[in-house]
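Need the bound structure for phosphoenolpyruvate, inputs here:
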Amino acid sequence: MKKLVVANWKLNPTTAKDAVKLASSINIKAKNKVVLCPPTIYLSSISYPNVGAQDCFWKTSGAFTGQTSVSQLKDLKIKYCIVGHSERRATGDTDQMINGKIHSLLEAKITPILCVGYGTTVLQDDLEVVDILKHQLDAGLNGVDASKVVVAYEPVWAIGTGKNASPEHAEKISIFIKAKYKVGTVLYGGSVNANNAKDFLRQQNVGGLLVGGASLKAGEFNGIINY
Ligand code: PEP
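Answer from helper R.:
Posting the output first, comments after.
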């Protein structure tokens, strides 16, 4: 079965020309299903079968300077949207705000990709991690049909550090999230690269990957999406 691989380009690249070039270098017919999430300002320039946003606002219109609504994403035919990334949580996004975004996305029929794992540390065992995740999942998925949400487990210490969690740990956490919250797809994210991707994709309950740094290198990312 195809797994889901999501590219989070974060605040890269620095020009629309480079963004278009990067998107055009990513295989369209990869072995896995691929979603490219460029910065909001490039969303309308990118041509790729599945494009996602990196964040959204929970209100659909009004006096909210600098925000992007789900209606605006819908208008651009955006199919996915990341919410609750640890880099957004670190700058003030609360579980309640994230929950509002998920409700808004589902109403617009855009699939939310809810990131959890903020606040975890490398020294925690599986049970301690589960405790932290429960908080974020209970609040983030409150009142939501969780089967329509993709959850990305991203231990915060693994993001952009070159130190990934073990595939076995990712599998255990995925089993927990699927069983307790009835989430259909759980991704792993955190320092995934072309060398370690297959070890995660081989895990039965890891439904795919959320990839940051390695998604900016077309050759490496094409390797990841074709396992
Ligand atoms: C991310 O930002 O979601 C991420 C997983 O980044 P990286 O792959 O660079 O660790």
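Comments: The CA atoms of residues 52 and 78 lie 6 Å apart. The radius of gyration is 16 Å.
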